[in-house]
Design goal:
globular; two-stranded antiparallel sheet; single chain; alpha/beta
C-alpha cells in the first residue's frame, strides 16, 4: 500500500500581507481550511507543515496538526524555489526512517480547496503510474489571444491584433497554474534539480472560484467576498 505525505509550506515573514499564512480569514486562520481539507481526504499518512516560524508552528499545533521539524533558514528566504524545500523535507523524513511513495504540496492560502479536489488529483497521479506530476489548473476566463499590454496613460496594445476579431468559440481553451496544489512521486522530487520545472505535468481542473490567488490585500478581500457569497447560497438552500 502506497504511503502519502502532504506538505503545507507556510514560511513566516510575508511582507505584502503580514502573517499571511495564519491571518484570520472569515473567522479562522487561513491555513486551517487547507489543513481540514487535507485531513478529511483521508489520503495522507503524514501531514507536515513546513515552516520556519515558531508562531505559525504554535497555531498549527493548536489546530491539532504537527510540525515534525522546523525548516532551515537557508530554505526560508523570498527566492527559494519550492522543489528544494520538498526534497529537503523528504530527506529529513528519510533520516527519521520514514519514506513515502507520493507527495502532495498544498498551499496554505487556498481556502476553497476541498478534499474531493485532492482525491481527483491523486487518482490522476495513480492513473499515470506516478510518472507525471499532477498540477491544479483552471481555465482562463477570456481567450489569451485577446490579451493587451498597457503603456503610458493606460494605452492598450493588443498582443495578437489579428486575433481580436475572432469569436471566443473559435479559439482554443487554455489553462493556468492556480498555485493551489500539486502531486508528485517521491522519486520525481528526489531526482529534480533547482526549481524542478517540467513540461510533463497532468492538469487537474478545479472550479474557477477555487483558483483565486491571494497575493495582496485586494485579493484577500476578493476571496473573503467569495467565501461569504458561497455560504450565503448554502444557507438559502
Amino acid at each position: 500500500m502506497k504511503k502519502r505525505l502532504a506538505i503545507i509550506p507556510a514560511r513566516g515573514g510575508s511582507k505584502r500581507i503580514p502573517k499571511k499564512n495564519i491571518k484570520d480569514f472569515c473567522g479562522n486562520p487561513i491555513i486551517s481550511y487547507v489543513l481540514e481539507a487535507v485531513k478529511s481526504s483521508n489520503l495522507f499518512d503524514t501531514i507536515h507543515v513546513s515552516t520556519d516560524s515558531n508562531e505559525i508552528a504554535k497555531v498549527v499545533k493548536k489546530l491539532g496538526f504537527s510540525v515534525d521539524f522546523m525548516r532551515k533558514d537557508e530554505l526560508s528566504d523570498d527566492y527559494t524555489p519550492i522543489m528544494p524545500v520538498l526534497k529537503w523535507v523528504l530527506e529529513q523524513y528519510k533520516n527519521k526512517g520514514e519514506s513515502f511513495d507520493e507527495v502532495a504540496i498544498i498551499m496554505p492560502c487556498a481556502p476553497f480547496i476541498e478534499s474531493n479536489d485532492l482525491l481527483k488529483a491523486s487518482n490522476l497521479l495513480k492513473e499515470n503510474n506516478l510518472n507525471k506530476p499532477v498540477l491544479a489548473v483552471s481555465k482562463y476566463s477570456a481567450p489569451i489571444e485577446w490579451a493587451f499590454s498597457m503603456g503610458e496613460q493606460g494605452a492598450l496594445y493588443p498582443m495578437q491584433k489579428e486575433m481580436l476579431e475572432k469569436r471566443s468559440q473559435d479559439l482554443n481553451e487554455y489553462y493556468f497554474d492556480t498555485g493551489s496544489f500539486a502531486f508528485f512521486s517521491s522519486q520525481y522530487i528526489l531526482n529534480s534539480s533547482n526549481a524542478g520545472i517540467s513540461s510533463s505535468y497532468i492538469g487537474s481542473i478545479i472550479d474557477k472560484y477555487k483558483a483565486v490567488d491571494i497575493d495582496n490585500l485586494d485579493d484577500w478581500k476578493f476571496a473573503e467576498a467569495i467565501f461569504y457569497g458561497i455560504n450565503q447560497l448554502k444557507s438559502e438552500k
